[in-house]
Amino acid sequence: MNPSKPLYFRHRFPSEIISHCVWLYFRFSLSYRDIEEMMAERGVVVTYETIRNWSKKFGGIYAKRMRSRSKKPNDQWHLDEVYLSINGKTHYLWRAVDQDGEVLDVLGQPRRNKRAAKKFFLKLLKRLQYVPRLIITDKLGSYAAAKAEIMPQIKHTQNKGANNRAENSHQPTRERERQMRRFKSPGHAQRFLATYGVIASFFRPGRHLLSAKNYREIMHRRFTEWSEIVDSGYITQ
């Protein structure tokens, strides 16, 4: 058996403060210093370096718990890739969302060829454990070539106009990239965006599609679920 210990073992701040700082960082375009100042205004003295460590340690844990509790995504996948400049070199962020805009997964890669598309498809299938009914992409030929080998029976629509949902999902990433003055390395981008995509999209339920009453009800349920996710539990060592 793998040993385990309480999630907040040896942390002198309570879980409410730790989780709130992590939530602020991944939900809004705020720097660690911004959050340090916001907490100071509330009488909580915590350094930006501590907030950085909390985000690095607990962000991925929270995101993993959120994925495990989420319902099965819809069967229509929207896929797109966008370039990132990291240390002067071009990398590509591959992203998949369902028709409701929920982020399914992201993967940073140095190429956008057939091999890169296959790697992303396999990552999606392994994590989601089901095949989609339809995938929608732009006209990049790598998608069709990879799909023909991995999911030949799945319907595939290649239309840039039909893929606005995936393209729009990149906008918050661009905002964070500017706020963070670009990502420091491919690993840094992958770790941050994998967590950011889950937490940020969870608290963006498509407000423009909902009445005010329904929006408040959904947000109340999501904040309740967030409290359950971050409140307690153990971490396997």
Give your account of this protein's structure.
Helices cover 51% and strands 18% of the residues. With 237 residues, the protein is of the alpha/beta class. β5, α5 and β6 form a beta-alpha-beta unit. The strands form two sheets. It has a five-stranded mixed sheet with strand order 4-3-2-5-6, with helices on both faces. α1 crosses α3 and α3 packs across α8. Pfam families: DDE_Tnp_IS240. This is Transposase. Involved in the transposition of the insertion sequence. Keywords: DNA recombination, DNA-binding, Transposition.
Oligomer: single chain
Q: What characterizes the major β-sheet?
A: 5 strands, mixed
Count the DSSP helices: 9
The total domain count is 2
Based on CA atoms alone, the radius of gyration comes out at 19 Å
Q: How much β-strand is present in the residues? A: 15-25%
Structural class: alpha/beta
How are helices and strands ordered from N to C?
Answer: EHHHEEEHEHEHHHHE
First-residue to last-residue Cα separation: 10 Å
Function: Involved in the transposition of the insertion sequence.
Keywords: DNA recombination, DNA-binding, Transposition
Region (Disordered): 157-185
Protein name: Transposase
